[in-house]
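Quick entry between incubations.
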Amino acid sequence: MRVLKVLGLFVLLTVPVGQVIPAIEAQAFPNDGVKARYYDLIAEFRCPQCLNTNLAGSDAMIAQDLRKTILRLLIEGKTDAEIETYLYDRYGDFILYEPRLTPRTWLLWLGPLGLGILGLWIWLSLGWKRKRPDGKTLSEDEQRRVQRLLERS
Amino acid sequence: MAKQSVLIPLCAFAILVAVLGLGFTLSDHNDLPAQRVDESMPSFSLPSLWQPESQITAAALDGEAALINVWATWCPSCIAEHAELARIHSEEGVRIVGVNYNDDPEAARAFLRKWGDPYAFHIVDAEGTLAVDLGVYGAPETFVIDSRGVIRYRHVGVVTERVFEEKLKPLLIQFQEAS
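Done. Structure below.
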């Protein structure tokens, strides 16, 4: 029984929720290509109003408007890049999950690299310190004592 | 040597504090990027709330510094700021233009009939197209435009007397004089 419970919990915790199915308005798509791109795009942009929900998953008024806008632009024949620029011009970095590299976002993009270098530096400096700085090794007597202490424990 | 190994976690801690501290200063939800500031009003042609058969364009905004207020009857904060907008109009003589956003025009007219209409006119943005072009996040939002129709400031949230006195009024005065 317990194993089943644990297994059940494990499955619940590890199986990804997957694509959040948006409970949103029905749209009339001219063809399946536009439909597929529409669903890709609304999952890709962040809703400006709800913190960290994408356009697909948001009920906010502005998210509905932006979904309509994206569909309109798709039907007008805009490319994905043009649609991104259109939204970026109006909403800025906020709407992108991957903000563009600008002076404002340098810390965001380069920070992890800096932390990595810092970590490497700490790791290396700690590693070197393990050696005795004077370069001496243990004498035979000291070696035997270490052996005895280890056996006793 | 022992001294240095104490320094490393201390430095790491200091860096963490600095980064998180910076994060907290950036976390003001209302401090959203205002992409449209210092650009002209986007072009539009939308019906007027009181004369639905006539179209309003961006040209109607020229001539005087004004507040553009994005509002709707479904938005409680918009209703809350209505009295302050009325005061700003009657006591300060400020021109306020309404963008009635994704609203039922009949409900909007009924609301204004009941509580008064301090706005010069209302643009009916039934599909939210003008709101998207303005980069609106959610109602209410209030923009300051200068007499040439250039957006100078964007305020997200309710306009209180304090917001008006400290932020909007100085800008209205500045851009009224500058042009």
